[in-house]
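Sample intake — Transmembrane and coiled-coil domain-containing protein 4
Collected from: Brassica campestris
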Amino acid sequence: MVEATSNLTPSQRYAASALLAIALNQAQISQTKPLGISPTDRGGDNGDSEHRLTSCGESVPQDEDLWVHEVSGLLRPVFRCLQIDSSAWHGIEEIAASSPAKPHIGALIKLLSDDDGSGDMVEKETALAKAAEAMVQGIQQGSVSVEAKKEKHLEYENECREKYSLPEAQSGAADKETLSHGEDVAKDNAHNPDIVEDGNPVEEAALLSHERKISVLYELLSACLADKHEDKEECTRSRKGYDARHHVALRLLATWLDIQWIQMEGVETMAACSAMALQKSGDKEEEESLSPESEWDKWKRGGIVGAAALTGGTLMAITGGLAAPAIAAGFGALALTLGTLVPVIGASGFAAAASAAGTVTGSVAVAASFGAAGAGLAGAKMARRTGEIEEFEFKAIGENHNQGRLAVEILVAGFVFKEEDFVKPWEGLTSNLERYTVIWESKNIIAVSTAIQDWLTSRVAMELMRQGAMYTVLSSLLAAMAWPATILVAADFIDSKWSIAIDRSDKAGRLLAEALRKGLQGNRPVTLVGFSLGARVVFKCLQALTETEKNAEIVERVVLLGAPISINNENWRDVRKMVAGRFINVYATNDWTLGVAFRASLLAQGLAGIQPVCIPGIEDVDVTDMVEGHSSYLWKTQQILERLELDNSYPVFRNTL
């Protein structure tokens, strides 16, 4: 007889595990077919890899590249933590890899809705939901107001427009048709039976109470973090901590259950806070004295220790910063209720968490105890480790540091005129991620940006713009035709500085990959965003990861804006496999500046920043109507990111805010 170790019944634990498995498989399918998009809507080839991800039959789970395969290390540790009978493991993996998924999802959610009639179960679920809500309130109260951020960013936008905005000629309909080889994938809606088609909750989710949904997500998160891997098992997963693939699957599952992502972020923060409280009050003797009825709590202690182990560098739960008092107050108020539930630290443990909130000493103690990777990202300077790179460091931005965030965002600017431009384009972002910007090769990047801007404001360039000649340049670029002599002179003027900047961006990308491989972000899922040469840094980082990584453990999402990257000469499909979730190429067909600057090596090879890449699994988003020119990414990137709605698992680009 399996001892009860969870607030969920055995059948509910089975259903929860199976839902996670299906979400993992759906997320992997999105690497070649964005969720909700039929393969017939894409310009690329679909290939055998797509077929094996969506076929039915016994052979499917035999593919070791599948995230639901037993060697992935993503599912079986979860089964073990939730005490799923081992005889059911293979069946769950079969269900996850089968097609279509939607009927299975509905049936499993119905199974979750079955109650055992226990008042104790309801009481614990209510307490857990209250704790998660306290975390959400802490996150919201600790954030600088959206209005204040927008006002500050508007000041920066107006300043940039005054200095760098150029009179752009309007392209005709024929020009746009020539340059844009397809429509935004988010507009396509052909039927595809292999995937859950839209971003709406599953109908059966209405059968579950909010408290039940939070309980399911919390237990699955804890199981994902617990590292219940057995040494004898073969496993392609190389890191402990919060795997990016788990994060994508939980994000998708939250969508199906109609849970807003900020509520899941509250659950994640609660896990991080519990880790700190556990470390402060953790006592081996207390664990040994637990009664048999507290076996689940005993496991949960181990699970949350796993969560604490991923807190690298500066990611220390609820220590310092604006949100700490609110989170502390929330924990303090719930201490008596939750002391017996989440996880075995008792009321005194939660009291310790509340008193420790905002104290740097608590942060440092946990970091030291769980093997934080050096000083983390903040202040990490990796400059002189690679060739001619002179400057490469991370700068913490935003108010989400030391707040128990279990996901990181790294932002890379690549067209700047002064050092503050590495930071200011990102300051207005309103996500709840722990954010860093990269300061890299500022001397060279400012030099090439200034050289381009100087030519753009020259009399010759202004006359060419007035005549609309720049759109002829873009058409010529795509067709490998000869350019007007005046444009060639301009390109030659820019070439030397541009070539240096390209070389430095490629090397900076390798440094970024090195930082991620070493876990300076704390083995938490990472979102990478870059514009202009910064997008190239991100792409080259992913390329470097393909050399050593077997799967998408590290990077969850990627956004490239105005990327100076060849389409036909680069291994886009291999790079896509390094990203667990959404991968977005943002382009503008009127960005002739990018075409002129990068024409030497990209004639007839395609250019991601000015056209769709048409690679399966990559969303191509046309922002021509928003972007006046290449320098516009300095002040428009924030608005573009808002419209992409990155927290949505499905392709989204809103034309209006």
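Post-analysis note: The mean pLDDT is 73.
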